[in-house]
């Protein structure tokens, strides 16, 4: 049954439209389970009713005509209870609802299971039979498994199907991902097509059919020549049988085979790359379903040939520099920093990626540049998006494609309000960060990227709370030398002098890889990362420490911070290397005073070792992002559980409050450099808890400064007392919103959600 299950899911997944996916689903399930009826009901969000969308066994005329509310009829009962319903005599059940147009009075037995994706009931899958019998446990388990397996596939098909039916500017489709960088922007989708990726070719209508056919033939001939040369080169090293495969490839590429079918698709209105991708996918899906092992293996050959031809087509299509639209929303499976740099900054308005995380290099760049970004958008049908008008909501991780007029007007107003607020806040950015009752709360900036903003930032901050030294490592094709690092660090230290600059030692691992030093692990966030990597490679850490110290000569504003500390032994080993570096540099004639050394509190174990840490280091800095992730056991970059990640979870807030209290008792300066510090409401909480400083990305500074200058320390402390009594994150958010409104500071928060079902509390603190 596992093989049957795999094939059904594979076929549904390969369907090119929602209708095709549903038709495949009911056909294959009915055949696999040998039933008289298989039907699928889908939720229509606008009516909140479950509509019969496809069936085999019931009258086809009832498709789209029959619908039930939650709790209505047997289908509605399955949806309401979110559990299977297995009946021997369905018409006798008190909840049975008879629809004459279906003709289902002929069927007695009924088995329905919900299709649930990320806690949301998408639909109900139903099988029925004439005879009175209860489906056995194996059949019920198989259908439940199918429903669970198909949920994600169907969610993607629903999104793709909804988008595929859009015509002109009518209608809209909304996709959800992980918020990577806040902000809202309206623009035009520009889809990046990875080289030779058959699944990412956009659908385009050709302007010159003859030209498309001609370049297809040229690409096929080029691949045929490549195969001929390869066959000749290997002739003496492989058997006659293996050599015959090359002839099979030539036949596949012949005018009467693949080429002819692709040409036909071009004449039907597709450009050559998309026509090729369609035909190759169709052949691959067919071959993967057959029972013959030899033919199944040929599916990989077809796919490989398709990629080879596509590579030539894409090479031909590269006729010059890319023209990006004025308001480009860059969309791709992955977006590298190099790609980001190719788009003119004045045209780049937003970023969307199928993969990636909120702590990836591109997300860090986007936040520093103030570019709204959404990542982890796994259900995004890339091929349907090219050139479409879109709204990107980086606050909530949302992309709206071909938005309706009302929504466009709403977001246009939000953008205008945001711009007006930015102008207003700019007027007080050189004023001190002091509460109305005279408490100074130093604001620092997170850096590690371009230095062009240093001049304007220096008068507005108390220093650099986090300099990400891994960024130069990521931009290289090898470990940078001591001289290269020292030059970069010197620019940063001199640019902010005499203000302190806190440099974090190399923090790789997790989701931050170096191209020349990849770390592949099953569970990277609990694996080899941060200080664990550099202590295992002291030659790398020593070069970095020497570069930092050398760069600080004569400036004396360097602070060194150790990431991902979970034990005292790690700190002792790192401090020994710092001392060794100082001795070595002194021997070289470089006299540098010993800098302050601190640790990042981001692993929960560190919370319970504060006293021992305080005897060894000079300061603590809380990495609230990772601390939240580890306390809640939530990978914030996984779209399935990202909604559970919440820095305002009561457990996280209580841990932070206790940390601030214990640090004060130990006489240890403690700051926060995670995203919570860059949120106005979050910053007020941290102020009230007693943290000594906040560090954030530059775009967050104006709103946080405005909040601190308008709320007294006493009021912030009162807010903390109230918040720590709340049992749930939702209640915390509700209270924060209530207080921010009372203080007339709600305009500093992310804009309210426009969707009717959005709770006001969700807008209180960006998560």
Automatic annotation (TrEMBL):
Compartments reported by the entry: Cytoplasm
Key words of the record: Cytoplasm, Kinase, Magnesium, Metal-binding, Phosphotransferase system, Sugar transport, Transferase, Transport
Catalytic reactions on record: L-histidyl-[protein] + phosphoenolpyruvate = N(pros)-phospho-L-histidyl-[protein] + pyruvate
EC main group: transferase
UniProt-listed InterPro entries: GAF (IPR003018), GAF-like_dom_sf (IPR029016), PEP-util_enz_mobile_dom (IPR008279), PEP-utilizing_PTS_enzyme (IPR050499), PEP_util_C (IPR000121), PEP_util_CS (IPR023151), Phosphohistidine_dom_sf (IPR036637), PTS_EI-like (IPR006318)
Domain called GAF: residue spans: 17-164
Main location: cytoplasm
UniProt EC number: 2.7.3.9
Cofactor: Mg(2+)
GO molecular function: phosphoenolpyruvate-protein phosphotransferase activity
Family label: Belongs to the PEP-utilizing enzyme family.
Name of the protein described by the UniProt record: phosphoenolpyruvate--protein phosphotransferase
């Amino acid at each position: 049954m596992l093989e049957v299950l795999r094939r059904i899911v594979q076929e549904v997944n390969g369907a090119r439209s929602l209708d095709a996916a549903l038709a495949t689903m009911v056909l294959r399930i009915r055949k696999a389970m040998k039933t008289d009826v298989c039907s699928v009901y889908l939720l229509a969000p606008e009516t909140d009713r479950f509509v019969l969308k496809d069936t085999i066994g019931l009258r086809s005329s009832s498709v789209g005509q029959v619908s039930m509310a939650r709790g209505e009829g047997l289908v509605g009962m399955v949806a309401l209870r979110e559990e299977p319903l297995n009946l021997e005599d369905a018409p006798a059940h008190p909840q049975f609802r008879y629809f004459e147009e279906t003709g289902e009075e002929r069927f007695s037995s009924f088995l329905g299971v919900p299709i649930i994706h990320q806690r949301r009931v998408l639909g109900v899958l139903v099988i029925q039979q004439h005879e009175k019998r209860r489906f056995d446990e194996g059949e019920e388990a198989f259908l439940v498994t199918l429903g669970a397996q198909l949920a994600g596939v169907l969610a993607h098909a629903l999104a793709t199907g909804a988008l595929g039916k859009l015509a002109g500017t009518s209608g809209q489709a909304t996709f959800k991902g992980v918020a990577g960088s806040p902000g809202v922007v309206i623009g035009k989708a520009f889809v990046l097509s990875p080289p030779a990726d058959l699944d990412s070719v956009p659908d385009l209508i050709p302007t010159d059919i003859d030209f498309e056919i001609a370049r297809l033939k040229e690409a096929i001939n080029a691949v045929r020549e490549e195969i001929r040369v390869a066959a000749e080169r290997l002739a003496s090293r492989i058997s006659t049988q293996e050599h015959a495969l090359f002839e099979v490839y030539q036949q596949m590429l012949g005018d009467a085979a693949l080429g002819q079918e692709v040409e036909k698709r071009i004449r039907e209105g597709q450009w050559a790359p998309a026509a090729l991708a369609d035909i190759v996918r169709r052949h691959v899906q067919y071959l993967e379903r057959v029972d013959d092992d030899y033919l199944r293996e040929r599916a990989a050959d077809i796919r490989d040939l398709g990629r080879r031809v596509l590579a030539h087509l894409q090479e031909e299509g590269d006729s010059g520099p890319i023209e990006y639209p004025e308001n480009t929303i860059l969309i791709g499976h992955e977006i590298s920093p190099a790609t980001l740099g190719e788009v003119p900054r004045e045209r780049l308005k937003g970023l969307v990626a199928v993969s990636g995380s909120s702590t990836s290099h591109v997300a860090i760049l986007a936040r520093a540049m103030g570019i709204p970004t959404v990542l982890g958008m796994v259900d995004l049908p890339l091929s349907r998006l090219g050139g479409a008008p879109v709204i990107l909501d980086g606050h909530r991780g949302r992309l709206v494609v071909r938005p309706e007029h009302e929504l466009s007007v709403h977001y246009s107003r939000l953008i205008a309000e945001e711009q007006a607020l930015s102008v207003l806040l700019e007027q007080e950015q050189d004023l001190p960060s002091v509460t109305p009752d005279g408490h100074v709360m130093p604001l620092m900036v997170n850096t590690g990227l371009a230095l062009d903003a240093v001049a304007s930032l220096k008068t507005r901050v108390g220093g650099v709370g986090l300099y990400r030294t891994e960024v130069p490592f990521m931009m290289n094709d090898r470990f940078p030398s001591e001289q290269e690092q020292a030059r970069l660090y010197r620019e940063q230290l001199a640019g902010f002098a005499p203000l302190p600059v806190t440099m974090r030692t190399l923090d790789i691992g997790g989701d931050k890889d170096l191209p020349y030093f990849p770390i592949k692990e099953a569970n990277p966030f609990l694996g080899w990362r941060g200080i664990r990597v550099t202590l295992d490679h002291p030659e790398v850490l020593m070069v970095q420490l020497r570069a930092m110290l050398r760069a600080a000569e004569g400036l004396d504003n360097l602070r060194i911070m150790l990431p991902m500390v979970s034990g005292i032994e790690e700190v002792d080993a790192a401090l020994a290397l710092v001392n060794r570096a100082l001795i070595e540099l002194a021997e070289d004639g470089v006299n540098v005073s010993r800098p302050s050394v601190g640790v990042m509190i981001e692993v929960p174990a560190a919370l319970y070792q504060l006293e021992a840490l305080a005897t060894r280091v000079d300061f603590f800095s809380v990495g609230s992002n990772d601390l939240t992730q580890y306390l809640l056991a939530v990978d914030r970059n996984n779209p399935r559980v990202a909604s559970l990640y919440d820095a305002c979870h009561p457990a996280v807030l209580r841990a932070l409050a206790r940390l601030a209290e214990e640090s004060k008792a130990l006489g240890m300066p403690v700051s926060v450099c995670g995203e919570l510090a860059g949120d106005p409401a979050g910053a007020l909480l941290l102020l009230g808890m007693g943290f000594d400083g906040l560090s954030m990305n530059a775009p967050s500074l104006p709103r946080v400064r405005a909040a601190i200058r308008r709320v007294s320390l006493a009021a912030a402390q009162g807010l903390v007392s109230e918040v720590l009594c709340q049992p749930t994150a939702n209640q915390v958010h509700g209270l924060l919103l209530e207080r921010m409104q009372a203080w007339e500071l709600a305009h500093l928060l992310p804009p309210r959600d426009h969707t009717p079902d959005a709770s006001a509390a969700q807008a209180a603190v960006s998560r």
